[in-house]
Amino acid sequence: MSACSTLTHSPVKSGNALQQLQVSTNGRFLQYQDGQPFFWLADTAWLLFQKLSREEAERYLDDRKDKGFNVIQVMVIHDLPAVNFYGDYAFNGEGFTEPKVSKGHSFTDEEQYDYWDHVDYIADLAAKKGLYLAMVPAWGTIAKKQPQEGEWAAQYADWLGQRFAHRINIIWLNGGDIYGNEIPQVWEKMGTALDKHADQQLITFHPRGRTQSSTWFHNSDWLDFNMFQSGHRRYDQIGTDDPATWKGEDNWRYINEDYARLPIKPSIDGEPSYENIPRGLHDPKEGYWNDADTRRYAYWSVFAGAFGHTFGNNAVMQMHKPNSGDGAFGVRNYWYEGMHEPGAGQMQYLKNLMLSRPYFERVPAQNLIAGANGDEYNYLVATRGQNYAFIYTYTGRSFDIDGSKINAKFVTASWYNPQNGETSPALKMKNHAVLHFDPPGEEQAANDWVLILDFK
Predict the structure, then answer these.
(1) 3-state SS of the chain: helix, strand, coil percent to 5?
(2) Mapping DSSP to helix (H, G, I), strand (E, B) and coil, where does residue 183 land?
(3) How many CA atoms does the CB half-sphere of 325 hold within 13 Å?
(4) What is d(CA 272, CA 354) in angstroms, rounded to the nearest whole number?
(5) CB count, 10 Å around CB of 367?
(6) DSSP state at residue 425
(7) Strands, DSSP E only, in 15-160?
(8) Per-residue b/e over 127-150, b at no fewer than 16 CB within 10 Å?
(9) Inter-residue contact 52 to 318 (CB < 8 Å)
(10) Residue 383: in which H helix or E strand, if any?
C-alpha cells in the first residue's frame, strides 16, 4: 500500500448547479436550496470590478474555480469617483445617489456600456462558473465621508437591491472594514434596504480588523450570518488595541464567542492574514505571512465551528498590475502571479475534508483533547460528528485524545496533510482511556497535520 492516498470517504454532494443559498436548519451552516451542504470557500478580490478587464476577470474566475473556490469577495465601490478598467464612472456627481446608467447593455457598443454593465458581465461570468459574489456596496472609509444621517445609503442600497434582486449568486457584505459603531445608522439603513429585495440572497457585515459583526448587529433582522475580520497582526503586535479584547492570531476565539450567542447564527472569518502580506499589514521589515499561516487560520476557525473560510493573497486582493504604481501593503508581485502562490491551491483540501463526512452534525469538540491543549501555535483544535473526529495541529506536536469521549471499542486513525490533501494509510486500534498520537515529521511551525478518527 502506498504511503499516502486521497480521502477514503466519498465527499458529501455539495451541489453542482448554481442554487439559492440558505442558512441550515440548525443555524450553524449554509446550504443549497436543495438541502445539500455549502462550504463557503472564498477568495478576496476586492478591486475586481475596478481594475480588471472582462478577459482578465474570466482568467481570474477560471483559476479560482479550478482551485475549489465558490465565493469571491469584491467591492462594488471602493473609492469616489469610482471608475473601472474601461474608464466608465459609476455615478453622476460626487455621491452615491445618481448611478450613471446607459440606455442599453451592449458590450460591443461603448455608448451602451457602463460601469454597472461591467458588474453585470462579471456576475454573469461567475454564475456560469458556479461562483457566488459577496459584494460590499460601499467601503467604510468612503461611506464615512457621506452625509451622516444615512438617507443616501437607504436610497443607494434600495437601487442596488432592486438591480441585483434576480441574481441568486449575490451575497451582500454590508459595512466594509469599519467598526459597526461608526455611522451605525448608515449600516442599519443599508442593511434594511438591501434586505427588502434579498429574498434570494444572504446578508452579513464586514467589520474592521480584530472585530466581529455580532458585537453590533447580531440581532438585526437583516443579518443572516456573522462575519469577523481576525486581521493581519502577530501576537506581539498589539499596538493601541484594548488588551481586554485582544485575541492575537487566535481567530478561533471569535468563533467561540459567536458560537455561544443566541439566537444561533453561522459565523466565518471573512478576512484573516493574507498570503504574502506584511505581518502587521504595513511594514515589510516585519516579514510576510505565508501559505502555512493561511492554513493555520483556516483550520483553526473551521474546526472551531465556522461554516467556511475566506482566503486572501496580497497581490490578488488589490489586483496589482504593472500600471498600478507601487501598490499597497508592501506588495511584491502582480495579481496574475499571486494567484498561483501555494496558499490558494491548498485551501481546497480543507473544503474536501469537511465535505468528506456527514456535514450538518459537526460540532466543536475540544473535550476530545486530553491534558494541556497548548497556547499560540501549539494550540490544538478539534471538531467531530457522530462517528468521526478531526484534530488539527499546526506544529505537528504529539498529543493525547480522551478515549472516554468516543463511544466505540475500536478507532481507525489516519493523518491528513493540509498541504497536498493526501491521507496516510488507516490504522485500526483498540480504544483506550487515553490515545496517544505522534504526527509525521519533526515538531516545528508549519508541520501541520489533521488527525482523522473514524469510529462506530
Answers:
(1) 25, 20, 50
(2) coil
(3) 4
(4) 19
(5) 11
(6) P
(7) 21-23, 30-32, 37-38, 40-44, 71-75, 132-136
(8) bebebbbbbbbbbbebbeebeeeb
(9) no
(10) strand 380-384
- C-alpha to C-alpha distance for 217 and 106, rounded to whole angstroms: 40
- Spell out the per-residue pLDDT of the chain, length 456, in tens: 234 555 544 444 444 479 999 999 999 999 999 999 999 999 999 999 999 999 999 999 999 999 999 999 999 999 999 999 999 999 998 899 999 998 876 667 666 789 999 999 999 999 999 999 999 999 999 999 999 999 999 999 999 999 999 999 999 999 999 999 999 999 999 999 999 999 999 999 999 999 999 999 999 999 999 999 999 999 998 766 676 678 999 999 999 999 999 999 999 999 999 999 999 999 999 999 999 999 999 999 999 999 999 999 999 999 999 999 999 999 999 999 999 999 999 999 999 999 999 999 999 999 999 988 999 999 999 999 999 999 999 999 999 999 999 999 999 999 999 999 999 999 999 999 999 999 999 999 999 999 999 999
Cα 310 to Cα 343: distance, rounded to the nearest angstrom: 12
Instruction: Please tell me the distance from the alpha carbon of residue 89 to that of residue 113, in angstroms, as a whole number.
Output: 11
Amino acid in position 57:
A
3-state secondary structure of 373: coil
Cell of 393: 495541529
* Cell numbers describing residue 121: 458581465
* Domain spans, the chain: 21-354, 365-454
- Rounded CA-CA distance 80/95 in Å is 8
Q: Please spell the DSSP secondary structure of 187-202, one letter per residue.
A: HHHHHHHHHTT-TT--
195 phi and psi angles, rounded to 5 deg: -60, -30
CA pair distance 231, 239, nearest whole angstrom: 13
314, three cell numbers: 496580497
Size (the chain), residues: 456
State which amino acid sits at residue 93.
G
Sign of CA dihedral 255, 256, 259, 261: negative
CATH class of 21-354: alpha beta
What is the secondary structure of 245-276 as a DSSP string? T--TT-THHHHHHHHT-SS---EEESS-PPBT
Q: Are 184 and 222 in contact (CB under 8 A)?
A: no
SS3 143: helix
Between CA 197 and CA 437 the distance in angstroms is: 52
Residue whose grid cell is 455549502: 38
Q: Which helix (H) or strand (E) holds 172?
A: strand 170-178
Q: Identify the bridge partners of residue 37 per DSSP, sorted by sequence position.
A: 31
CATH classification number, 365-454, choose in 2.60.40, 2.40.160, 1.10.20, 2.120.10: 2.60.40
For residue 140 the three cell numbers come to 467604510
